[in-house]
# Entry
Amino acid sequence: MTNDQVPPPSIDTSLPHSARMYDYWLGGSSNFAADRALGQAFEQAIPSIRTMARENRRFLGRAVRHMVEEAGTTQFLDIGTGIPAPGDTHSVTEIVAPDSRVVCVDNDPIVNAHAQAHARRTAAEGTPSRTVYVQADLRRPEELLRAPELTAALDLDRPVGLLLIAVLMLLDDRDDPWASTATLLDALPPGSQVAITHPTQDFDPAAMGEVVKAAEQGHMTLVPRERSQVERFFGDWELVEPGVVPVMGWRPDGDLPDDPNAAYYWAGVARKPS
# Structure
């Protein structure tokens, strides 16, 4: 689907969606005028927002590789997965653990449309994908966990890698995202791991405040949170070194960046103890 191509009639593209905004920042073409307008408003407040999107994607790759190589994880649940693109969970697992099963979840029907098209293409090529997609909402984790696509793809008696990359900020405090996350963590067996990134006002309160205002004007919920609030999402799981740190500073490939605070996200990985 290219920019402003007519989507299915059930999809409203007059309002921006976070998945399509990320697609815009990452240089994709699966976005619409409303997505680009709000994406550009964010860029006015934080000119490095595209870099931040890329850093989130790089962290995703590092976290998945860690889960595969250090914990032997071969099942992944990626919530808020976004538009399929290079560097996503499916792409990383295809390289580091091709036998992995991946369940990708998003509440945007355009994401689901792209995902189904990808599945049809791979099936036609004779290489059916081991990745399945579920259209669901993080606000209703019980429904998600009961989704037949999920229960058919994942064995919840074996460790799962849960990925919550740049998604929890889309839930207001009134939605109690900590409760939604806890429901997911409670459903996973010991040895499972969770990776989280979350935007924060801790590094540049003024710039993040402007982004929040832009989101409100675009009818989008965006809640940056301080480090202690992000740490709460991990519950009583054991944080993997180096703990909750700036996203660019979590086990970077190569040397630590000169300014790891240049991307305004906290990031961390934790393991469920036995």
Residues 18-271 form a domain with the Rossmann fold fold (CATH 3.40.50.150). Confidence is low (pLDDT under 50) at residues 1-7. The chain has one domain: 18-271. The two ends are 45 Å apart (CA to CA).
